[in-house]
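dude i think i finally got it to work??
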Amino acid sequence: MMKRIVALMILAAALAGPAAAGGMKDVTMPPAAERTLDNGLKVFVVETREVPLVTLRLLVPAGSVFDPAGREGAANLTAGLLLKGAGGLGAEEISAAIEGVGGRLEAYAGKEYTIVAGEFLSRNLALGLAHLARAVTAPDFPEDELARERSIVLARLQQVKENPGALASREFTRRLLAGHPYGNPVEGYPGSVGDLARADVVSFHGTHYVPKGSILAVVGDVDAKKVMTLVGKELGGWTGEAPAAKVPDLPAARVQGRRVIVIDKPDMTQTQIRIGNLAGGMNAPDYFAAEVANTLLGGGFTSRLMDEIRVNRGLTYGVRSGISRYRGGGYFAVGTFTKHATARECIDVALAEVERIRTEPVGDDELAGTGRYIAGLFPFEIETNGDLARWLTEVEFYGLGREFVETYRTRVGAVGAGDLREAAAGNFRSGGNMILVLTNYEATADQLKDLGELEVIPIGDIE
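look at this
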């Protein structure tokens, strides 16, 4: 909380000042020792001396994009079991050993990779690294723990159906990216998770938990040479190589014209709205211009969408836009909610704002203010040991290089009005979109009937 308060105070000072974003200085990441083990594991070590703590972050390219068809949720379940029994130690023994020294270790899956990360006192680095290595290389996957974890996941999936915002977002992504593994939720679906057996988890681990392509960052009050020796001892014997199959890229544009999907949930008291289409991925050449464009459009509390839909018209309490980015592409989405009676007005205004940023020039003051907002906040993204470990692993995974971080503010500040407009035109669409509406269709049918090609799905048909 204190970090956020200080960040906002400094940001307010930056926004109040006359300097443009381009005048803000680049940041400098501390030097990192690098080594690639013989088995292909890439290791980064950063020595920091502020506090006697060390952060560990291992990125394994074992995300949900590799879930077998019909076994969606395998990556998530595998990650959830890593610390529930490994190398002959039970879940309680592992937890007691880590918590007994005041440490923390967790594992979770994402779309493209799984993370095993934790924090320990520097003097307990060996213990922490040993447990991380054991969890990743020798999980036991006990049947009782698998049954317990599977039931927890199934309960969470059921809760999604009772959370209109989460359900709308999940179904929008699922249908926009239909047929591509990026479209499946990391947690899977009730049917697929319910069918997962120990053999599925063992197979997923054996195939995808391999050192080649994995990245370990160790950041904290440590000696780099000693850390490298310790890593070699604990993870140097890790073997295996991921299959050569590559996740296909997303197409350049998925939806042509307006495709409207209505999920009819009669007990809805408000209408959830999602609008979007495909956009650039992590390596898109217009990454920074698109980030500025999105922030101006709907990425902040003072954005155009917020001003027009909430402040000026009072149609909602909140509206945002964002670009979700992956190795093989990404997608843009606007998300909001409103009363049933104003569903169409809210959609029309959002589309009009998307069209405006695509086609109309952006004023110098608005552009400069947006740049200052982004650049002013960025230093707080690399403030802690955990922040540094995250950036080290992710820029390596995506092939961005540390200059992505160090020149972030300069590159944001260098975005001109023409760059922004071009990026907006390439990433945001107003005419061709998927529009997903979660609503009481009886209350909104007259508003939606001429919006575009319409498909109505009863809530009972949603898994």
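The chain has two domains: 33-235, 249-461.
im so relieved honestly
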